[in-house]
Amino acid sequence: MALHADHLVLPISQGEEQIGAISVDRGAVAGLQNERHHLLSDVADSLGAILQASRLGIELERQLRAALAHAEEIAVCRGGPRWPRWTTSGVRSSGTCTTAPSTTW
Questions:
Q1: φ, ψ (nearest 5 deg) of residue 97
Q2: Cα–Cα distance between 54 and 76 in angstroms, integer?
Q3: Which of 2, 5, 41, 104 has a C-alpha 20 to 30 A away from that of 68?
């Protein structure tokens, strides 16, 4: 925890790694008793897991969109149906097949 002229800065950590910080207005913590200090530290500690979960969710969504775009490209190459509802990511097939059509299933 660091005290600045107008705010208090608490580190946000995930494991041993500091991944960010939360800044609290010094006036909001004026006369800070030990319980409040402990509560602020607990909140900052909890934010590390929340930020990590958010990052993982974003990465999972990115991977899903890439997989769906690739599935659409394969379907087009095989002459199968296209699923336009899966292309909301803005990723479109180039129109050229990079995957050879399969004659066996």
A1: -85, 125
A2: 33
A3: 104
Q: What is the tens place of the pLDDT at every residue in 16-55?
A: 888 888 888 877 776 666 777 778 888 888 898 898 899 9
Can you tell me the distance from the alpha carbon of 76 to that of 14, in angstroms, rounded to the nearest whole number? 43
Matching residue, tokens 């299933």: 105
Sequence ranges of the domains in the chain: 2-87
Sign of CA dihedral 55, 58, 60, 63: negative
- Each residue's pLDDT tens digit, 52-90: 899 999 999 999 999 999 998 888 888 866 555 444 445
Q: Are 47 and 20 in contact (CB under 8 A)?
A: yes
Contacts of 97 (CB under 8 A, 6+ apart): 73, 76, 77
Q: Dihedral sign for Cα 58, 64, 68, 74, please.
A: positive
